[in-house]
Design a protein that fits this description.
Pfam families: ECH_1 (PF00378). GO terms for molecular function: delta(3)-delta(2)-enoyl-CoA isomerase activity. This is Delta(3)-Delta(2)-enoyl-CoA isomerase. It is an enzyme of class 5 (isomerase). The protein is α/β, with parallel strands linked by helices and 244 residues long. It has a single domain (2-201), classed as 2-enoyl-CoA Hydratase, Chain A, domain 1 (Alpha-Beta Complex), CATH 3.90.226.10. It has helices spanning 25-44, 67-70, 74-92, 109-115, 133-136, 142-151, 155-162, 170-175, 186-201, 207-217, 219-224, 232-242; strands at 2-7, 10-15, 51-56, 60-62, 98-102, 105-107, 119-123, 129-130, 181-183. It has a six-stranded mixed beta sheet, sandwiched between helices. The chain has a three-stranded parallel beta sheet with strand order 4-6-8. The chain is globular and about 50 Å long. The N and C termini lie far apart (41 Å).
């Protein structure tokens, strides 16, 4: 499933084991629990400043939804699509910066999971980013598309990802602006992600303010996963309370 470890002000969420980290009900529930625990621990610690790193063990970051469990049942597949939506919401509203260490393949819903993080680092020696839906004949759920549009801002890059099913290796993903840094291998990717997370946590940003700004930055994606943007009055109160 997954584990959560706190290293100072950095929380490390690890998708454990050498499997494909398929997003079924059990793993989705485990991830949501870990994210809630990280948010609670950050709120309880002395002073602001925290960051989350997500990393996968083995060859995969995540190979998407658990289609083995869903089989040919569209109803079961729909269950998983609906169950993953709150995970996207949890990440997009998490009151701290988030970093995905892509030490393996990230496909379909696994690619979406990576995109829900603020930063992405990817290994150069192996692994691809791949939205497989066009190749396997499945439509993209509306919230998938909203997140993709928010995070892949170059029109041609978005076209190639969703309409061409292009498998992106790290240099191409970096050129398209989808990943922020390319590292030689898995150990270096994890290490650089932790280093970035420590730098971000050291800024000691107010978590509620950070989350509010992120939600304002991606309004369509956030609405698509069920996050309601603060009203102007609520934003004013958040601003005022951060200055007290």
């Amino acid at each position: 499933m997954c584990t959560l470890e706190q290293r100072g002000r950095v929380f490390v969420l690890t998708l454990t084991g050498d499997g494909e980290h398929r997003l079924g009900h059990a793993l989705i529930s485990s991830i949501r629990s870990a994210l809630a625990s990280a948010a609670a621990a950050a709120a309880a610690q002395a002073g602001p400043g925290a960051c989350l790193v997500t990393v996968g063990e083995g060859r995969f970051f995540s190979n998407g939804l658990d289609i083995g469990w869903a089989g040919t049942s569209r109803a079961r597949l729909g269950e998983l699509v609906a169950a993953l939506r709150p995970v996207a919401a949890d990440l997009l509203a998490l009151p701290m910066p988030t970093v995905a260490a892509l030490t393996g393949h990230a496909s379909a819903a696994g690619f979406l999971l990576a995109l829900c993080h603020d930063y992405r680092l990817m290994r150069a020696d192996r692994g691809v980013l791949y939205m497989s839906e066009v190749d396997i004949g499945l439509p993209l759920p509306p919230y998938f598309m909203a997140v993709l549009r928010a995070k892949i801002t170059a029109a041609q890059a978005l076209r190639d990802v969703v309409l061409r099913g292009r498998k992106l290796r790290a240099p191409d993903a970096k050129e398209m602006g989808i990943v922020d840094a390319v590292c030689p291998g898995a150990p270096e990717t994890a290490a650089e992600a932790l280093k970035l997370a420590e730098q971000l946590a050291a800024r000691k940003w107010d978590g509620a303010v950070y989350a509010s700004i992120r939600i304002s930055m991606y309004p369509d994606a956030c609405r698509s996963v069920g996050i309601v943007e603060e009203s102007d009055e609520e934003k004013a109160r958040t601003f005022a309370s951060s200055k007290l």
